[in-house]
Specification:
This protein is of the alpha/beta class. The protein has a single domain (24-286), classed as Nucleoside phosphorylase domain (Rossmann fold, 3-Layer(aba) Sandwich), CATH 3.40.50. It is 25% helix and 29% strand. A five-stranded mixed β-barrel has the order 7-12-10-8-13. A hairpin with a 4-residue loop joins strand 5 and strand 6 (102-103). The longest helix is centred in the first third of the chain and has 16 residues, at 80-95.
Length: 287
């Protein structure tokens, strides 16, 4: 029996997982993830009841019920590094025994849906619409720090590296599919590849005072095709979320509101209204 060391599985004195500050009974099997901590309350205000409200740093969790179903909303903060914390700690809550510090023989599967905002990378994608990420494209490199590579779409990744003439000193791009069981629940949405950047400015081709290393990033992404699949939008979490969640055996899906179009330079006039409409859509579909 392999006992997980204190330095690997870090718990609070109350036996809660360290960063999220959560105990096992304080999360549901169905979880909505958002980046913005303030967005958690927008979601939980729609619950019929709220049993738990917990916050530690940028990680905010509200767990309650809606239409008789237990559901959690959790803020991850921004970026793949925070996703690494959140997904590993959520899995630990349901699949590791905190008393014996051993992995459970029977594993639980969580349904994890991330709701985010993004910039469109195709001119015909309208502002204030929603994209369900059928694939995540990772520029973040997080998947390369773990052993499991079988889950990655290797041929698609190689095709993008060739298409983009990828710079060798950057992390190799990787692709991973959404969970079909969740994606199938939103057939009416635009389905496409969502690219994940490890930053908001240079890694997404923005120029303020620093010049990005890839001058034609948007053009390379807009023109990429793989078996009729195309890159639809840019954000900062999906690839890491898909890789970690599915490697650990959970179901994952990202749905993003398009609040800007990086090619046409249009921007939403009321993105908060659009985000709330996305929340309503998802809650109605899963509860």
């Amino acid at each position: 029996m392999n006992i997980i060391a204190d330095t690997e599985l870090i718990l609070t004195p109350e036996k809660k997982i360290y960063h999220l500050n959560l105990s096992k009974e304080e999360i549901a099997d169905d979880i909505i993830l958002v980046g913005d901590p303030d967005r958690v309350a927008v979601i939980s205000n729609k619950f019929d009841s709220i049993e738990h409200k917990i916050q530690n740093r940028e990680f905010v969790t509200h767990t309650g019920t809606l239409n008789g179903k237990k559901i959690s909303a959790i803020a991850t903060g921004i970026g793949p590094d925070n996703i690494d914390i959140v997904i590993n700690e959520l899995d630990a809550l349901v699949n590791i025994d905190f008393e014996t510090r051993t992995i459970n023989k029977t594993k639980k599967k969580l349904n994890l849906i991330r709701l985010g905002t993004s910039g469109a990378l195709q001119k015909n994608i309208a502002i204030d619409t929603f994209i369900a990420s059928s694939y995540g494209l990772g520029f973040d490199g997080l998947a390369h720090f773990y052993q499991n590579k079988e889950i990655l779409e290797q041929k698609m990744g190689n095709a993008y590296i060739i298409h983009a003439n990828w710079i060798g000193n950057l992390a190799a791009p990787y692709f991973i599919k959404a969970s079909e069981c969740l994606l199938a629940q939103f057939p009416e949405l635009t389905h496409g590849i969502t690219a994940t950047a490890p930053g908001f400015y240079g890694p997404q081709g923005r120029t303020l005072r620093l010049t990005p290393a890839i001058s034609d990033l948007h053009e390379k992404m807009e023109t990429f095709r793989y078996k009729e699949k195309k890159i639809c939008n840019f954000e900062m979490e999906t690839s890491a979320f898909y890789y970690l969640g599915q490697t650990l055996g959970h179901h994952t899906l990202t749905i993003c509101a398009v609040i800007g179009n990086r090619l046409t330079k249009e921007y939403s006039k009321d993105y908060k209204k659009t985000v709330e409409q996305m929340i309503d859509l998802v809650l109605h579909r899963i509860c």
